[in-house]
Amino acid sequence: MTNNLMKKSAVFVTLMFLLATAAFAADMDMSSSTAESSATTEDSTAQSGMDMDGAQETQEESQTADYEVSIAFENDTVKTGSNEFTLTVKDSDGQPVTGAAVLVTFDMDRSSMDSMDMSDPLEVTLTEAGGGEYTGTVELSDEGDWIADAEIVSGDTTYAQQLTFEVESAGPNMIVIGGFLGAIALIIVIAFLLKRKNAKQ
């Protein structure tokens, strides 16, 4: 009876440990504040009669004569896999641009790599979230330098801006791996204690 109770307790403790580890790992992924990736921008305005030169900047946000466009990813570091992001669009007075149709095309920087080994560009149609913010999700397949070409259609004006950012490999989730190893170690310890108890009886 005592052994059965101890075994059930061991299973319960192990399950709770695994669930807590998984929840902690998920919380770590979601708790990162929305951060803007370092980027260089090149912008162009259609139907405005203006010729803007693309300017390299250390910040992702670009000030232009017409729109101010910035991209922010959910996590501090952009990694391979699924990434949620927000594109913020403001006019020259800093007021949010609403009611626009926004399309972002993601592609790797092909200037320094063999384009034959790269995946096709990814088009993401964004959903308006209010306040000049447009959201979407993109599946980034490879690590390296990526380019996001944003096309914003508002009324009769089409505005385009290019943003660049770096993607890192997601790699293994060490928190989850550590949790499973800890659970295995806990099972071994409990089994050892049960064996010693049985040996004494």
- How would the global form be characterised? elongated
CATH topology of the largest domain, what is it called? Immunoglobulin-like
Q: Provide the CATH architecture of the largest domain.
A: Sandwich
- With strands numbered from the N-terminus, the spatial order across the biggest sheet is 1-9-8-4-5
Number of helices: 2
> Secondary-structure element order, as H and E?
HEEEEEEEEEH
Terminal Cα span: 13 Å
- Mind describing the biggest β-sheet? 5 strands, antiparallel
- Give the helix proportion (percent range): 25-40%
What is the strand and helix layout of this fold?
Elements: H1 2-31, E1 41-45, E2 67-73, E3 81-91, E4 101-108, E5 122-125, E6 127-130, E7 133-140, E8 144-154, E9 157-167, H2 174-200
Antiparallel strand pairs: 1-9, 2-3, 3-7, 4-5, 4-8, 6-7, 8-9
Helix pairs in contact: 1-2
Description:
Strands 1-9-8-4-5 form a 5-stranded antiparallel beta sheet, with no helix packed on it. The protein is 28% helix and 34% strand. Strand 6 (127-130) and strand 7 (133-140) form a beta hairpin. The radius of gyration is 25 Å and the shape is elongated. The protein folds into 2 domains: 2-26 and 174-200; 33-167, Macroglobulin (MG2) domain (Immunoglobulin-like, Sandwich), CATH 2.60.40.1930. Helix 1 packs antiparallel against helix 2 (174-200). The chain has 201 residues and is of the alpha+beta class. The protein is built from 2 helices and 9 strands, in the order H-E-E-E-E-E-E-E-E-E-H.
Outline of this structure?
With 201 residues, this protein is α+β, with helices and mostly antiparallel strands.
